[in-house]
Design brief:
This protein is an alpha+beta fold. Helix content is 31%, strand content 26%. The strands form 5 sheets. Strands 5-13-14-17-12-20-18-19 form an 8-stranded mixed sheet. The longest helix has 20 residues. The protein binds flavin-adenine dinucleotide.
Length: 455
């Protein structure tokens, strides 16, 4: 079957590439191949009763399927060049921001209207942070919430389904360069196209590596982010979260000069398990609907590590630390801050004596046996620094869940069009190692679609 364009992966990058192609060239023949299920068939079997832990489904519904890794996420679209990826290094700061605003407009048109756009512009917290050696990054944040994010995806699919051919449960095995374009091979057939957009996200990292090897596309190793997820009563951060929703704060430790940063803040949210290639790590989300909110706020504290010589495998390093926590705790470990600084493990009894209730059922344990000293020291220092702008952060009952790991794909060599060294082969989204967020991945999809339409 012949197509003008084949898109591999139906995460935000792939969806927005398809959407923009249909806006610019409605008659183009476009197909989207997705390894996971269609949106309505995406269900994680873990129900906390019959199935308590990951059973290793063939296709993980949390990470794969229409909507990609972000489908059940908090739906925080950060409109900024300060974090979430380095798209601006390829296409320029202004165009990158314009594309992110454009994506936001589409999300509003497809079900997101009425959701709140928060901004750090003119906030008093910037000064308060600097006075305490903390640095608040600039951003506007559209918070769709897990519920509305799903509605937007449903509406985008309904718009696209009659215009684009979707192939679900159809992992692409190989991409082969031909004289007139590309051959895309799946188990059930061979499809050809003039242009090919690869947007396979983090879950497609190993496959992406293989494609780059086969097609001799240069790559660079990327960093890994390691740390914990902090959970505390929502009141502790409410002055920040009510105004900004999410505050990205960076701190440079006095002991080692390492940077520790807050990440993925979920006011009145829940801490959740995340499964990456069978390793259980921790994440968090929150709902827009007040009925589904909790009394706690959670956020990650992360430290970046980048290995280059002689050991290059930053992700492998992160994976083995996460495996260690799984070995000791059978999954995610939780520890009270008070226990951590007293050098003792948390126990079920100590957890019961706490003044607030955790949102995730994790194993009480000792994170100092899991995280390298340097990383843990940095996190402890940051908690004391945050305590100055949000008193209560360093309370004994503050919970630390570990480990939180953010894996990044290796960075693929592409040009300002996000095209690889092969004419007409684009590599976008988190799979390219360039983006790490919903807004940047979506913007990269729009960018390549416009380039394809123009040419
Ligand atoms: C729990 C969670 C919460 C998150 N919350 C946020 C948030 O609030 N804000 C934010 O900015 N970011 C968030 N993120 C990150 C965000 O989801 C990603 O940055 C974003 O989804 C990347 O989009 P993408 O299109 O590049 O890749 P993905 O969304 O990962 O999509 C890639 C798709 O490609 C498919 N695929 C892979 N290999 C193949 C193949 N060989 N053939 C066919 N299909 C293939 C996969 O099945 C997948 O569906 C979160 C991530 C997780 C896991």
């Amino acid at each position: 079957m012949n197509y003008d364009v084949i898109i591999i992966g139906a995460g935000p990058g792939g969806i927005f590439a398809a959407y923009e192609l249909m806006q610019c060239k409605p008659h183009m023949k476009v197909a989207v191949f997705e390894a996971g299920h269609s949106l309505e068939k995406r269900h994680c079997p873990i129900d906390g009763k019959k199935i308590k832990t990951c059973i290793g489904c063939k296709s993980c519904s949390i990470m794969s399927g229409f909507g990609g890794a972000g489908a059940f996420s908090d739906g925080k679209y950060n409109i900024t060049n300060d974090f979430g990826g380095t798209l601006f290094e390829y296409i320029g700061k202004k165009p990158a921001l314009e594309l992110m605003h454009y994506v936001d407009e589409i999300n509003m048109r497809y079900g997101g209207e009425g959701t709140k756009l928060y901004s750090t512009a003119g906030t008093k917290f910037k000064k308060l942070c600097i006075q305490n050696d903390l640095h608040l990054l600039d951003a506007s944040v559209r918070h769709l919430g897990t519920d509305i994010n799903y509605v937007v995806l449903e509406n985008l699919y309904n718009y696209l389904k009659d215009k684009v051919d979707f192939f679900f449960d159809c992992p692409v095995e190989t991409v082969v360069k031909t004289e007139s374009g590309y051959e895309v091979n799946c188990k059930d057939g061979v499809y050809t196209c003039h242009k090919c957009v690869i947007s396979v996200g983090r879950i497609g990292s190993k496959w992406m590596e293989k494609v780059c090897k086969d097609l001799e596309i240069p790559t660079k190793s990327n960093r890994v982010d390691l740390g914990v997820r902090v959970e505390l009563p929502a009141e502790v951060f409410s002055h920040l979260t009510d105004e900004l929703y999410e505050s990205k704060i960076v701190y440079r430790t006095q002991k080692y000069g390492d940077k520790v940063r807050t990440f993925c803040m979920n006011p009145k949210g829940a801490v959740v398990n995340e499964n990456t290639n069978g390793i259980i790590t921790v994440n968090g989300h929150s709902y827009e609907d007040p009925a589904m909110q909790t009394g706690n706020t959670n956020f990650a504290l992360l430290v970046s590590k980048h290995f280059s010589e002689p050991f290059k495998d930053s992700n492998g390093y992160g994976e083995s630390i996460a495996r260690l926590s799984n070995m000791l705790g059978g999954g995610v470990i939780v520890q009270r801050f008070g226990d951590l600084i007293r050098g003792r493990r948390s126990t079920p009894k100590r957890m019961e004596d706490s003044f607030f209730t955790p949102t995730l059922n994790a194993t009480p344990g000792d994170l100092s046996l899991v995280l390298p000293k340097r990383i843990l020291d940095g996190i402890i220092e940051m908690i004391y620094a945050l305590d100055k702008v949000a008193p209560g952060t360093a309370n004994d009952d503050t919970l630390l869940y570990g480990v939180e790991v953010k894996f990044y794909n290796m960075e693929v060599e592409v040009d300002e069009k996000l095209m690889s060294r092969h004419e007409g082969l684009y590599i976008i989204g988190d799979g390219s190692g360039i983006t790490h967020s919903l807004s940047h991945a979506s913007a990269s999809g729009v960018h390549v679609a416009r380039d394809i339409a123009e040419n």
